[in-house]
Design a protein that fits this description.
Strand order of the largest sheet: 1-2-4-3-5-18-6-17
CATH architecture of the largest domain: 3-Layer(aba) Sandwich
Number of helices: 9
Radius of gyration: 24 Å
Largest sheet: 8 strands, mixed
Strand content: 25-35%
Distance between the termini: 21 Å
Structural class: alpha+beta
Shape: elongated
Number of domains: 2
Number of strands: 18
Amino acid sequence: MAAGLSAEVISIRRHLHKYPELSFQEYKTAEFVASLLEAHGIPYTNGIVNTGIVAVIEGKRPGKTILLRADLDALPIQEKNTVDYASCNDGVMHACGHDVHTASVLGTAIILNRLKDQFEGTVKIMFQPGEEVLPGGASLMIKAGVLQQPHVDLALAQHVFPSMETGKVGFRKGMYMASTDELHITISGKGGHAAMAAEYNNPLVVAAHIITEIEREFSVETDAEGVARHTGNQIPTVVVFGKIEGKGATNVIPESVYMAGTLRTMNEQWRARVKDRLREIIGGICEAYKAKADINIIDGYPFLINDDVVTEICRQSAIEYLGEEHVEDLPLRMTAEDFAYISQEVPSCFYRLGTGNKQRGITAGVHTPTFDIDEEALRISTGLMAWMTVKHLGAAN
């Protein structure tokens, strides 16, 4: 059935790719998704968190409820691909594969709607806005009740993986992706002429001490999987400043310096301790240098955890569907994903879909202007997700 839908799913994906919309602005995308659900007779509710949609497919008899999730938003990136489905919206591109996720889940919904007399339970399909920006559309849809009425028992989601060849999928039980918090620090000193050292208090020097002390305090070791782990407790940890801005000149000391960074880890108690310690370090150094600090730590997504039982069922289903040689084990990742909110609420599995093809030169990573996929992955993704869903819900006799 998935093979027969392949052309339609590819067409859906190309349309979505051609007309991307930024986070929480996915109005035309939502209209397009709704039109396809209507065309295939799949009941839905739209307007959730403005552009979110939830479709529901009832099986032959009551049973468990499984949530399938897709994200709708694109990124503020100018596409450089020359394909005929390249983005028509200047400066906006589906560079993270959300067009693939949405097309795949739509294909899965079509399959499951045709098979609804052959399984028990309920399939709830969530098309969410704003995965790419805080606070994350998943968190807002949870607050809007997406996990209730009917209550969701488990959830599945997939993500494109360009470094994995098309035809393969990957799974990992337990903690898989990191929490993410944004660090925004402004250090205020006293500016002046660089030659008049007695008359200024250089905030760049203060910022330099802060960065080096944080680097020392949160030193890491890289494990065999390439994951940064805190030297003292071995908890996966990243505390990094990627931006420092002091608008001075060769002979001008600025009044203030702005620093931006990220905190990522996989332990909620440690996450809270790191935030407290960051405030202590920054405050102490500023006091020593008679400077001031405005510290703004914006809480982001929690860590993503894959339920052992749900993930094992998915993994075995993938082996049945694709063959064991096409199913891989995944390493930990310090990247983040707002599906983590769902994984913290209900047993979940977030897995990877291989979309690369080295022979055809399809190797560009996500969040790059040349990202694309081998569209053969769409045939695999729709059928596999439908198969895993039925395996979880059980066949109706």
